[in-house]
Write a structure and sequence with these properties.
The chain is 64% helix and 0% strand. The chain is mainly alpha-helical. The radius of gyration is 10 Å and the shape is globular. InterPro entries: Sda (IPR015064), Sda_sf (IPR036916). This is Sporulation histidine kinase inhibitor Sda.
C-alpha cells in the first residue's frame, strides 16, 4: 500500500465502503485506520 495521509486513508475507506466491492481492500484500510487510532466517522 502506498503511503497515505490520514485524510486520504479515511476518504479511501469511505469510498470503498460505498462501493462494497473490494472486501480485502476495506479490511486493509480498516486495519490501518485502527492502527493509527483514527475515527473514520464522527458519530462512532
Amino acid at each position: 500500500m502506498k503511503i497515505m495521509s490520514n485524510e486520504q486513508l479515511i476518504l479511501s475507506y469511505r469510498d470503498a465502503l460505498k462501493s462494497g466491492k473490494e472486501k480485502e481492500w476495506i479490511k486493509i484500510l480498516k486495519d490501518e485506520i485502527e492502527r493509527r487510532g483514527l475515527r473514520p466517522f464522527k458519530n462512532r
